[in-house]
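User: quick one, sequence for these tokens?
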């Protein structure tokens, strides 16, 4: 049996990871540690919390005593650290919180892992560890900085022979530029958020170098999918479209991001934890670069089509169907320091572990929009703060 400490699993990707893992791996136990900030919602993992293999601890990854207690009371095999302040806009408003959670929180977990996983010392004085332990840090492509957007229109992405064999089913792979981020690209973070994430990566690697602690880091591109808090681009657009409200798009909307369906990301993390070589970084990308404005137009089109096709979906609309069109788009002043383009080269994880992003964007965005049309109660709950009441009800007297 393997015991995972999964932090931040009441948030978007962590919750999807728990949902991915539980039906696929029988012999596991999950301890979820989450502070339940505005971005963390117990309603998101309500079903999973009923599973006897799952336990939940409300708390801060920066809390030294709590981390110590969790490690003392549980024989943890893997730490999977999703917990973070994750919204770039908020990092521009309040950088300090990002440094505290993303850097010091990670270091606190590393310390607890090092202490409780140490088995002895080798002849050179380095700690040795109990077998099979690993610290997995969930990082981001944003640590690499920004790439040039060389093409106005996307071009067909040429894959190496190896990767082409692995991605056999995928077509319509595209890119807006000549360069992509590889694991060897130097770190060059530009926002307080990405600087904090880069610092966290470096402290993870430092624990590897200085104390020989076994680790992996995955750096992924923009995730999208179900259970995404409606402050990020895609869920925010869906919410506003349904309400007939303006869709704020930064600058000219020509910043390029690579979009990765969240379940594909979760699969990558699972693979890296189980089969990744300790001390290695793996880039995880979607092979789907697109300009923000085209993502927004695609979401508008998907909502328009699905609400037309399905009477039940159209009842979710708070506006007339005729209002769902590109006239909702409203260009607003650009984000400070807005990175032009991110693009991930996932050759390493493809070749070593056989992973590739299985979900084409057209399929992923349709699934995502359908999910939001079917889960408006969840959206209302997370934006209203109702989940706080849920927490009190579920956990106060336990
Ligand atoms: N969403 C993306 O597209 C994306 C892309 C690349 C990397 N990432 C990384 O993936 C991870 C998860 O991202 P997400 O989008 O799910 O984030 P999220 O904001 O949806 O969720 C973060 C979770 O962490 C919890 N949390 C925050 N501070 C905490 C603290 N001090 N102690 C304990 N829990 C705390 C929150 O309550 C929440 O449940 C983050 O580390 C992020 O940097 C995300």
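Assistant:
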């Amino acid at each position: 049996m393997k015991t995972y400490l999964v932090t931040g699993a009441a948030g978007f990707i962590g919750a999807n990871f728990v949902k991915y893992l539980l039906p696929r791996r029988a012999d596991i136990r999950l301890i979820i540690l989450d502070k339940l900030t505005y971005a963390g919602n117990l309603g998101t993992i309500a079903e999973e919390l009923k599973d006897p293999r799952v336990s939940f601890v409300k708390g801060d990854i920066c809390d030294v005593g709590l981390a110590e207690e969790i490690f003392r009371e549980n024989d943890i095999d893997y730490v999977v650290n999703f917990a973070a302040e994750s919204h770039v806009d908020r990092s521009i408003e309040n950088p300090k919180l990002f440094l505290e959670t993303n850097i010091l929180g990670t270091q606190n977990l590393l310390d607890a892992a090092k202490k409780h996983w140490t088995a002895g010392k080798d002849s050179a004085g380095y700690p040795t560890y109990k077998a099979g332990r690993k610290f997995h840090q969930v990082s981001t492509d944003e640590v690499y900085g920004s790439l040039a957007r060389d093409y106005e229109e996307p071009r067909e992405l040429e894959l190496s022979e190896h990767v082409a064999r692995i991605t056999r089913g995928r077509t319509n792979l595209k890119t807006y530029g000549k360069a992509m981020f590889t694991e060897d690209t130097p770190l060059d973070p530009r926002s307080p958020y990405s600087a904090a994430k880069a610092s966290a990566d470096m402290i993870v690697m430092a624990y590897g170098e200085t104390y020989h602690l076994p680790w992996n880091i995955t750096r992924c591109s923009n995730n999208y999918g179900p259970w995404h808090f409606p402050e990020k681009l895609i869920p925010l657009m869906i919410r506003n479209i349904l309400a007939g409200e303006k869709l704020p798009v930064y600058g000219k909307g020509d910043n390029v991001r690579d979009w990765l369906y969240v379940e594909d990301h979760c699969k990558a993390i699972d693979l890296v934890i189980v089969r990744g070589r300790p001390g290695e970084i793996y880039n995880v990308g979607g092979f789907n670069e697109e300009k923000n404005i085209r993502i927004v137009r695609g979401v508008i089109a998907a909502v328009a089509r699905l609400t037309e096709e399905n009477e039940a979906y159209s009842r979710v609309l708070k506006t007339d169907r005729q209002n769902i069109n590109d006239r909702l788009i409203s260009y607003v002043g650009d984000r400070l320091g807005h990175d032009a383009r991110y693009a991930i080269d996932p050759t390493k994880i493809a070749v070593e572990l056989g992973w590739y992003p299985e979900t084409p964007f057209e399929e992923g965005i349709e699934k995502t929009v359908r999910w939001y049309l079917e889960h408006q109660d969840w959206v209302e709950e997370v934006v209203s703060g109702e989940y706080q009441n849920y927490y009190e009800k579920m956990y106060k007297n336990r």
